[in-house]
Design a protein that fits this description.
Blueprint (H helix, E strand, L loop, with lengths): L1 E9 L3 H12 L8 E4 L19 E4 L1 H9 L12 E3 L1 E6 L9 E5 H4 L5 E5 H10 L1 H6 E4 L3 E6 L4 E5 L4 E9 L6 H5 L4 E17 L6 E7 L2 E7 L5 E7 L1 H9 L2 H11 L7 E3 L4 E10 L3 E2 L2 E3 L5 E2 L7 H21 L10 H30 L3 H15 L2 H12 L7 H5 L2
Helix pairs in contact: 1-4, 1-9, 9-10
């Protein structure tokens, strides 16, 4: 069986679904057929209970908020499941929050209403799949990819049930282990970190004050991220052995460890959710595109979680790709030609350089703060204190973290 589309997106996660919804809501794509291939799409909205919070949460930046608003998805996320944070306090293991060896970011210093939001991944995903642009214009195909075929004027996805789905352009958005990337013959650079991320939710003796708290320890950073119901989401980057112990140790013992790790900043800590851990790896595709194929999101780049930039970089990829294709279509490009490599190279040059900066910065921070050298410890504390005293530097860093500085897509820059 053959089925033809102009754009076929492999992977219906947050980023892949966002590409589809952005294209579907753009007037230049009005006559184009758009499809998403996903083996396990969401079938119903997440539970409404305020305290029913999944382990997988993301820090949604201002740029991502604007992109999700553009497709009508952001208003669909129930407000009781969105926690805006106004402040972020970061300090070295030998420093103190808001003391020497620390840096404090405040929305009041950025000219923005907040520094971002902590939201469950499943709620963001459902809002995209449920927005009008996606529901009305995107064909959702359930199935598993097994092969890709490329010709001069089209590409085809081969599914496990024998279906052959043809498209002028195939977008790989199937995660850091991307099968579509491998089938397209695109190699990656990167390495495994000798670290894992331990995640859970906790209740604390003192309120989180709508603040993201992050302390850099020798084994890796620990972050307490504020949740809407008053709890905090924990992301603790540590050694593999320690992460495994944190998953299995007695809850009271783990709570005590978490309290000590955050320097008792929020008082006593009590586990209030399931526990999990996952390995960490840096990955960057050597190429973002080939003829009739392009990568977005984690399929193109996987980043350390310490800065919370993973999905935000993916949403920026989505907006940039749709912007490039829309400009080409507006300039008279035939829809059947949107998968030509000369077109996709514009997107690659734009986003690959931006993502390389983000990956390099976050990787460098992880190595710098993970070093036990005494001279580097002094340099870290001094550098943080100097940055904290420079409003210009802090505004620059906040702008980059919010995704509204640098080479941002037009809809991010012009959003009202």
């Amino acid at each position: 069986m053959k089925t033809g589309f102009h754009i076929l997106i492999i992977g219906g996660g947050m980023v892949g679904a966002c590409v589809a919804a952005l294209a579907a809501s753009n007037r230049h794509f009005a006559d184009l057929r758009i499809a998403v291939l996903e083996a396990n799409p969401p079938t119903m909205p997440p539970p409404e209970a305020v305290d029913d919070i999944d382990l997988r949460v993301s820090a949604i930046s201002r740029a991502s908020e604007r992109i999700l608003s553009e497709i009508g998805a952001w208003p669909l996320i129930p407000r009781q499941h969105v926690c805006a944070y106004d402040d972020m306090s970061v300090w070295d293991a030998d420093g103190k929050p808001r003391g020497p060896g620390s840096i404090h970011f405040s929305a009041s210093e950025s000219g923005e209403p907040n520094l971002g939001y902590i939201v469950e991944n499943r709620r963001v995903l459902w809002s995209i799949h449920d927005c009008a642009a996606f529901r009305n214009r995107v064909t959702l195909l359930r199935g598993e990819l097994t092969g890709l075929e490329f010709e001069d004027d089209r590409a085809a996805a081969i599914l496990s049930d024998g279906r052959r789905i043809e498209a002028a352009l195939i977008v790989g958005s199937d995660g850091s282990g991307s099968l579509s990337r491998k089938l397209a013959g695109i190699e990656t650079r990167g390495w495994d970190y000798d670290q894992r991320a331990f995640v859970t939710h906790v209740r604390t003796e003192h309120p989180h004050e709508r603040t993201a708290w992050q302390r850099f320890l020798p084994e890796g950073p620990i972050a307490f991220l504020p949740l809407a119901d008053g709890r905090s989401s924990i992301v603790w980057t540590t050694t593999p052995d320690h992460a495994e112990r944190l998953v299995t140790e007695a809850p009271e013992q783990v709570g005590n460890e978490l309290a000590r790790a955050i320097d008792n900043t929020l008082g006593k800590v009590e586990l209030a959710g399931p526990r999990g851990q996952f390995p960490l790896r840096l990955t960057h595709a050597k190429e973002y595109c080939r003829e009739r194929f392009v990568l977005v999101g984690d399929a193109a780049h996987a980043i350390h979680p310490l800065a919370g930039q993973g999905v935000n970089l993916g949403f920026l990829d989505s907006a940039a790709l749709v912007e490039v294709l829309a400009e080409e279509l507006e300039g008279g490009l035939p829809p059947v030609a949107i998968g030509e490599r000369r077109v996709l190279r514009r997107y690659e040059r734009w986003r690959k350089s931006e993502n390389a900066v983000a990956l390099g910065l976050v990787d460098g921070l992880n190595k710098l703060f993970g070093s036990r050298a005494d001279t580097l410890g002094w340099a870290r504390r001094t550098g943080l204190s100097m940055l904290d005293g420079s409003m210009l530097a802090k505004r620059f860093l906040m702008g980059r973290a919010l995704g509204i500085r640098g080479a941002a897509p037009a809809l991010v820059r012009s959003h009202r």
